[in-house]
Amino acid sequence: MKEKKGSELTKEKAKGKRKAVKNPMGTAFDTPVKIQPIKKPKAVKKVADEKKKETKPKKTKKTDAVVEMATVEKNKGAKKAVKVIFLGGVGEIGKNMTAIEYGNDIIIIDAGMTFPSEDMPGIDSVVPDISYLTQNKHKIRGIFLTHGHEDHIGGLPYLLKELDEGTPVFGTRLTLMLADNKFQEHHITRVDERVVKPGDCISVKSFKVEFINVNHSISGACALAIYTPCGIIYHSGDYKIDLTPVAGEPIDLKRIAELGQEGVLLYMAESTNIERSGYTLSETVVGATFDHLFAENATRRLIIATFASNVHRLQQIIDMAVKYRRKVALSGRSMLKVVEAAARIGELKIPDGVLIDVERIKNFRDNELVIISTGSQGEPMSALTRMASGDFNKVTIGENDTIIISATPIPGNEKMVYRVINNLYKQGAKVVYESLEKSTFRGTPVKKNTRCCTPFLNPNSLSPYTANIAI
Ligand SMILES: [Zn+2]
Hints:
Blueprint: E1 19-22, E2 28-33, E3 44-45, H1 47-50, E4 65-72, E5 79-88, E6 97-102, E7 105-109, H2 131-135, E8 140-144, H3 150-153, H4 156-162, E9 169-171, H5 173-185, E10 193-195, E11 201-204, E12 207-213, E13 222-228, E14 231-235, H6 253-262, E15 264-270, H7 283-296, E16 301-305, H8 311-323, E17 327-331, H9 333-344, E18 355-356, E19 369-373, H10 383-388, E20 401-405, H11 414-426, E21 430-432, H12 434-438, H13 447-457, E22 461-465
Parallel strand pairs: 7-8, 8-9, 9-10, 14-15, 15-22, 16-19, 16-20, 17-18, 17-19, 20-21
Antiparallel strand pairs: 1-2, 3-4, 4-5, 5-6, 6-7, 11-12, 12-13, 13-14
The protein binds zinc ion.
C-alpha cells in the first residue's frame, strides 16, 4: 500500500485573508480555510519543508495513508511527531479505522467493517488490514468508538483477538452494547469495556480524549477531541446537525466552537454526502414522511427496510405502527439483536403487545402489520433480498405489499439495491424508495453541515474521511 507523508502545518500567519489548504491526502481542498498558528505548542513546523533526514516519517507498511505532524520540543531539542494513520474509511465507504500515534503510545479510533462487493464471492465481511497495529500492539493504549454502526464497530472482534487482553474499549452505552453483541458472537470474553457519556474526558498516556455529543442516525454518537502533545485533533465521527432530534440532545455546537477557540490542529471531517448541497434534514421530518405513507397505504401490508442500527428510525416506525394500530414483526438477525439491545437499555420504547414474532404474521391481516427488515442496501444474504427473490420462507411478497426502502444506497451498493427493487416489482409489490430519498433518510452531513462546523473549529488543517476526498 502507498504511504503518504507530509504535514499541513505551517507557521504562516493568516493575515486575515482566506487561503486554500492542502489536505493530508495530498489533494487540494476547494474550501478556503483560514490558517492560523495554534498557541500550543509554540513551535510547529512543516515536515516537508524541513528536509532533514531525522524528521522523515518511517516507512509504515500496510496503511492507507499516514499523516505526520511534527513538533519541536524546545527544551529537549528532540523532535517528536504525532502520526495519524488511516487504516480504512478514507476514499471508501465503510471499515472506518484510524490510529493516532505519539512516541510509544497509540490510540485507535473505531474499528469498522464493510460488506463485500460483487467481485468478492465467498467473502462475508471486509475488515481493515491491522498488521501495523499487531506489530505495535505494545503501544496500544485504548480503542475509542464514535458510534455503534457496523462500519465503525464491525471489525472490533477481529482487532481484539490480535491485541493484548485488557486493552480498554471506550464508547457510549448503546455503542458498547452493540459491540458486546459482537464479542459474544465471536466468543470473546473479558473485554475491558468502559462506558462514557458526552462530556467525558479520558486520559491515556500521551493523549486525552473528549467525547462530544453529535446527532446521527443512531443514539450515543460522539465526535472526539483528541488532545495530543502537538495540538487538538477533532474527529467528527459520523454526524449531522439536527436541532430537533427525535431523541437526545442536539449536537454540542457550543463545545465545538470552544474547541475552535482553543485551537484545532487537524479537523478530520466526515465527507460521505459532501457533494450534495443543502443541509441534512432533521430526523423528525422523516417521521412526517412515514405518517404520510402509513395513511396512504392503509389497506396494504407494509414492509420497511432500514439499517438495524438506525435506532431513531426504528423508533419512528414503531411509533407510527402504534398510531395506525399495526403490529410490528422484525425480520433479519441483526434487526432482532439491535432491537433487543436498544429496548433493554431504554433507547427504544416499544409498548407491550406491539412486537410479534415474524412466525405469527399469518395470524394477522395485511393492514394490521408492519414488517421491519434488514437489507436496505441489497446485501446478498439479507432478509429483504431473500424476500425479493422468493427465497425467504417467513415472508412471501405479494401484490398487497408496499415495501419502503428507508435508506439511500451507500455508494457502490446501487446495483444490488436496484436488483432487489426489480425483484420486488416482479413479485407484484409496490416499492417506495425515491420519494423518500428527497425527504432525506441520510444520517450523514451534506455540504453545508460540514461547512457549518469548519468555521467553528477554525482548524489548521482539514482531512476528509469516508467516501469523498473533496470537501
Ligand atoms: Zn454511522
